Amino acid sequence: MYRHSLVIFSVLAILFSGCSPKKPAPRKTVIRSYKNENKYLLYAFMLSQNNDFKDAYKYFVKLYNHTNNIAYLKYAISLSAKLKKYDDFYKLVNEGLKEYPNNDVLKRELIRYYLYKKNYKKVTSLTLDLIKKSKTEENYNFAGSVFLNLKNYELSLKSFEKAYSFHYNEDILSNIADILYLFLNKKDEAIAYLETHARLRGCSKKVCFKLIDIYAREKDINGLISVYKRLYNKYKDDRYAKKAVELLLYQGEKQNAIKFLKKNGIDKEMLADLYVSIKDFKNAYDITKELYEKTKDVKYLGRMAIYEYEGHTVKDKKLLNSVASKFAKVVKTLNDPLYLNYYGYLLIDHDMDVKKGIELVKKALKQDPNSPYYLDSLAWGYYKLGLCKKAKKIMTKVYEMSKDKEVKKHIEAIDKCIKGGR
């Protein structure tokens, strides 16, 4: 710990020394040497590290008084503010300005003092004088914050715009957008500022998320989609792509969602689901087959079986055997009621193996006993076996639950069976 402190102390000593040949002080004040300087600096540093700001403050004041080094003065001023010793704060700032009348840091501290005192007239005049005499990015940014605090939004905006023009700082840009959007009701201008920056200098996360915030407030879905697409293109994070797709689907733009997912090669499962939603079972099958071959996960084989069946209008023997063989492999390792019922109904409806189909459906019903789909399959199985009264009892219950047209057709077929004495 002691050696660690000495290392940091040596860095501090360099920072606080006023003799750097690269940056000569722009003043005539001479920094004096002081024999206890290093010792007191170490004390001050250690006290600050231990949150003993009161004693640290005393050492920095002593160091400044003995050396005239403005670095010590700035630290003492900062600690006096932390300790809320505003009279000392004011005294130190004015002492510093006597020695360093053109120092912008001290001028800004004096403005802060008058903010503490709520002397807003003085704050305004000093801030205007500051940016008139020293037109720097830091001063304009400071002025923007001061005028924002005073709720002078027009002056705050102008100051931030000046600050932004130096290096196009994104934090300053965010302040500009907030003032335009939240306080001046210039929503289009706020968006234009952010969009222009994004176009010319890139849509960083900070800028993009500021746009997202505004577009969300304005319920501008197209704007949100555009920003999420840009975020994905820049950072290749699938979360942004999924957000864009969700918003496209919210607008009912399934084809554009498919196009975006296909182009970027992301979330193949979602892409397959979208193809299913537009009844494009061929593409859904091809994608799911690719996923199965890559992962060997049998759930994809089950989906392949469903898409293969649904994608053909003609259910010939070859197709039925292909679909059934896939389901057979799936239910050996996956006790999923979806595939159990689908396989069971396939065997029942096409008279491939009705009894086996019923057993598969019963397994599905053990997991979800009130599913109208599974109950329909069971009733249809009983119908195929000629147990029509048993089938009618179940199917009536299913129709009460779903009012489905297909179920009604099944009931009609079962009623005919019952009239025939079965």
List the helices and strands and how they pair.
Layout: H1 2-16, H2 37-49, H3 53-67, H4 70-82, H5 86-99, H6 104-116, H7 120-133, H8 137-149, H9 153-167, H10 170-183, H11 187-201, H12 205-217, H13 221-235, H14 238-250, H15 254-264, H16 268-277, H17 281-295, H18 298-310, H19 317-333, H20 337-349, H21 354-367, H22 372-384, H23 388-402, H24 405-419
Helix pairs in contact: 1-2, 2-3, 3-4, 4-5, 5-6, 6-7, 7-8, 8-9, 9-10, 10-11, 10-12, 11-12, 12-13, 13-14, 14-15, 15-16, 16-17, 17-18, 18-19, 19-20, 20-21, 20-22, 21-22, 22-23, 23-24
Give a written overview of the molecule.
- By secondary structure, the protein is an all-alpha fold.
- Among the domains are: 1-118, Tetratricopeptide repeat domain (Serine Threonine Protein Phosphatase 5, Tetratricopeptide repeat, Alpha Horseshoe); 131-219, Serine Threonine Protein Phosphatase 5, Tetratricopeptide repeat.
- 78% of the residues lie in helices and 0% in strands.
- The protein has 24 helices and no strands.
- The longest helix is centred in the last third of the chain and has 17 residues, at 317-333.
- The radius of gyration is 38 Å and the shape is elongated.
- Residues 1-25 have low confidence and may be disordered.
